[in-house]
Amino acid sequence: MARFIVRRLGLMFVILLLVSMIIFSLVHITPGDPALMMLGQEATPEALEALRERLGLNLPLYEQYLNWVGGVIQGDLGNSIKDNTPVLSILLQKLPVTIQLTVFAFVIALMIAIPAGILSATKKGTIWDYAGTSFALSGVSIPPFFLGILLIFIFSITLGWLPPSGYVEPWVDLKQSILLMIMPAIAIGIRLSAEITRMLRSSMLEVLGADYIRTAYSKGLLGKTVIVGHALRNALIPVVTIGGLQLATFFGGAVITETIFAVPGLGRLVIDGILTRDFPVVQGAVLLMAVVVVIVNFVVDILYSILDPRIKLTGGQS
Predict the structure, then answer these.
(1) Distance in angstroms (rounded) separating the CA atoms of residues 190 and 139
(2) Domains and CATH numbers, the chain
(3) What is the pLDDT of residues 250-297, one digit of tens each?
(4) How far is CA 258 from the centre of its chain?
């Protein structure tokens, strides 16, 4: 286990280094001049050049990258070009909002997917199976941004049941905070619930045909005991994989959803940073998302050995 953790941490460092290069390159090749956006079209060439020099934008790209990475290693992500606020403090303000949205979406996805997947597998060929399969296909096919707009139209504009957009901290007004999170969480979580439903159904069908399941039934164990205690545990291994990967991508998928529902999280921060050409903010936010993805994948690998003791984590393989 120790060798595996050390090897994976080294791999995580290499991946994040490559990701940082890609992020930095993509941000800086995007058309637009931050100095011009800050000073406006009426700014003189001298003022623009002075601002670029102050921000370090006149340095060669490789020097800018090395300066940025050096700061990141020391915990300094730079300052926002827009208002000179430390990027790290901005991210720490926005991160809890995105985490709250992600947790809501993940819980909603599991509440739908696990019962639907189990029911679809145990009732194969029935109307329940067809309903679960149809839901899985529909959920994967509908883009989250379109579902979000549809939810606003139905539940806010037409029925008036939920507030259309905005955000309130849970400690300020818990009820309003939950109400505001329901629709964006559903918009993000439906796709994950559909994928988990499809994966769990397939995995459950394979496990239910195994010899040890038939043996458990022959011993007189109740159906619920066999399904939950034996079949579901082994069927969860591929589900953990897809669930972990999708949980990580929630941080990226929240970009458009947070914008639609006016949720002030990391996703909306990235959009605002791109529009204002705020390089440090965009780089810091996307790098943070990459760190979350890498960490979640690491945790998923550890969960493998917990769900199935036959899977051993070693320095050479997992």
Answers:
(1) 6
(2) 87-307 (1.10.3720.10)
(3) 666 567 788 889 888 888 888 888 887 888 888 888 888 888 888 877
(4) 12
| Residue indicated by tokens 């696990």 | 114
How far apart CA 132 and CA 120 sit, in angstroms, is 6
- Take residue 63 and report the two structure tokens written for it: 């020097």
Interatomic CA distance for residues 125 and 122, integer angstroms: 9
Span 203-236, pLDDT tens digits: 888 777 776 666 766 766 656 667 766 677 777 7
Judged on CB neighbours under 10 Å (0-12, 13-18, 19+), 160 is exposed
Q: Can you spell out the DSSP letters for 161-184? A: -S--S----TTT-HHHHHHHHHHH
Residues of the chain below pLDDT 70: 1, 4, 32, 40, 211-214, 216-217, 219-225, 228-230, 247-254, 304-318
C-alpha–C-alpha distance, residues 120 and 22, integer Å: 42
Beta bridge partners, 86, equal 79
